[in-house]
Design brief:
This protein is mainly alpha-helical and 122 residues long. The chain has a domain of 71 residues: Helix Hairpins (Orthogonal Bundle). It is built from 4 helices and no strands. The longest helix is centred in the C-terminal third of the chain and has 48 residues. It is elongated, with a radius of gyration of 19 Å. The chain starts with a helix and ends with a helix.
């Protein structure tokens, strides 16, 4: 449980810091837009509820794909193929920036700890 809490804190810290980054802001906007697009599409075309539509959009773009939902219409299937290719790139860029921030923060922390130990030895 502690690892989950630590991971969540690191994620939120990286998110807060990156909100000042213009590139990150653009990617965050695109992630929100692509999820909204998928949610509205699946709600209207497949007839799913709002939460089910958002759930399917997230599960699809993160490539988890539990298989509990799948498009039944030809339009839904065609949209999903395009949606995956467009959304994966956007989500990858978003996750990459957050991941780099978390790694950078950890490396800086390790570097400071190492330098503090060296300073205390002198």
């Amino acid at each position: 449980m502690l690892y989950i809490l630590i991971t969540l804190v690191l994620f939120l810290r990286a998110l807060k810091k990156q909100l000042e980054n213009e590139e990150f802001q653009t990617l965050l906007f695109l992630v929100i837009m692509i999820l909204l697009l998928g949610t509205f599409f699946y709600h209207n075309v497949e007839g799913w509820g709002w939460l089910d539509s958002l759930y399917f959009s997230v599960i699809t773009l993160t490539t988890i794909g539990y298989g509990d939902f799948s498009p039944k219409t030809d339009l839904g299937k065609a949209f999903t193929m395009i949606y995956v290719f467009a959304g994966l790139g956007i989500l990858y860029g978003f996750a990459t920036i957050l991941g780099k921030e978390i790694v950078t923060h950890r490396l800086e922390k390790v570097g400071k700890t190492k330098q503090d130990n060296e300073d205390s030895e002198e």
